[in-house]
Amino acid sequence: MKLREVMPGVYRAGRELATVNLTPGQRVYGERLIRHGGKELRCWSPSRSKLAAAILLGLRKLPLSSTSKVLYIGAAQGTTASHISDIARDGVVYCVEVSPRAAHSLIALGEQRPNLVPILGDAASPESYASLLERVELLYQDIAQPEMGRLLLENCSLFLRRGGHLIYLIKARSIRADKPERIFGEEVERLREAGVELIATMRLEPYERDHMLVLGRWRG
Asked: Which of 174, 172, 135 is CA-nearest to residue 156?
């Protein structure tokens, strides 16, 4: 199989995306493992990960390196976070999740992956986990709350370095019952007014309905 690196740490294996497995031999969500050139890679499913969907749909920049420090808010059971962990293999991925059941899965994942730090916490109360964090270079938010935009900016102001990047998953149906296009426009304008430099915005159909991914740079 031909393997091509499409961005640092992310590979195209045929029609699939993949990342080099930080913990060889271990799967996180039943993904397929590939061996190539002495490496083991984990296939990255766009139907299970909005970030993988965005990359397949044309996202050209992913502000991640092998030493990145990342705050992932809404990490759920760690599907996408595990691939970020593969990429930032010498960095750290702080994973905040409000659901105790999902956080239990994150704790188990953190026992396997030394760079993944699970935190039981609510994005609406960032002060509750502030003592566990440091300033990060990337803040990734994927939550389903009506005030998700406000919560994103609050967490950015507390934890994201000036000049760092944010990835914001806007779930229109979680904000209110209205035309998604209107909601997306309002949320993007909220970021502009807060001084965020927009780098990319993209809808995630056909993988996710009424979702948009926004990549921006935080000016603080």
From this structure: 135
Does residue 9 lie within any of the structural domains? no
Q: Distance (Å, rounded) from C-alpha 53 to C-alpha 125?
A: 29
Lookup: tokens for 214 = 């926004």
Q: Is residue 109 part of a domain?
A: yes
Q: Is the dihedral of CA 119, 120, 125, 130 positive or negative?
A: negative
| Cα–Cα distance measured from residue 28 to residue 70, given in angstroms and rounded to the nearest whole number | 19
The DSSP line for 13-66 is ETTEEEEE-SSTT--SSSPPEEEETTEEEEEE-TTT-HHHHHHHTT-------T
Q: How far apart are CA 67 and CA 126, in angstroms?
A: 24
- 201 residue type, one letter: T
pTM (2 d.p.): 0.96
Using CA atoms, how far apart are residues 36 and 19, in angstroms rounded to an integer?
12
Q: How far is residue 131's CA from residue 154's CA, in Å, rounded to a whole number?
A: 16
Tell me the per-residue pLDDT of 96-152, one tens digit each, with 9 for 90 and over: 999 999 999 999 999 999 999 999 999 999 999 999 999 999 999 999 999 999 999
138 found inside a domain: yes
